[in-house]
Specification:
Blueprint (H helix, E strand, L loop, with lengths): L1 E7 L4 E10 L4 H13 L4 E12 L1 H16 L3 E5 L3 H9 L8 E2 L2 H6 L8 H7 L1
Parallel strand pairs: 2-3, 3-4, 4-5
Antiparallel strand pairs: 1-2
């Protein structure tokens, strides 16, 4: 797994780019990275998952924990570029509304409901 933090003041977010596999072995390092981003004051975070090949439940917990921290500070965590498998996993476990997924970093930064990936499935599941 590799992670890169990219401030995007033009979009009003901090982008965390992740590549590889987010699993039981790599999730602690990813969680620590996200915790550091929040600790440094960023509360509007977009996780760019375009190059993420796999995510297990431990990886999901990193996203949930960070979302909780961001929401408590008036911010958010959103996904960009999540593949079908990750979006489906979020949908199945009931987290797609809590950790919304968008096609691009720009769409995630804006939070446009019409640009949400799987928006129609999320509404149908309610």
């Amino acid at each position: 797994m590799s992670v890169q933090i990219v401030p995007r003041p033009d979009l009003g977010v901090t982008v965390v780019e992740i590549a590889g596999e987010l699993d039981i072995d790599s999730a602690p390092a990813f969680r620590e990275c996200l915790t550091g981003v929040v600790r440094d004051g960023a509360t509007r975070i977009v996780v760019d998952a375009h190059r993420l090949r796999f995510c297990d439940s431990i990886g999901l917990s990193s996203l949930i924990t960070t979302q909780q921290a961001c929401l408590a500070r008036g911010g958010f965590l959103r996904l960009a570029g999540a593949d079908d498998a990750l979006r489906r996993l979020l949908l199945i476990v009931g987290l797609l509304d809590y950790v919304p997924a968008y096609a691009s970093v720009e769409a995630a930064a804006s939070g446009d409901p019409a640009a949400r990936a799987y928006a129609e499935h999320a509404r149908a599941a309610r």
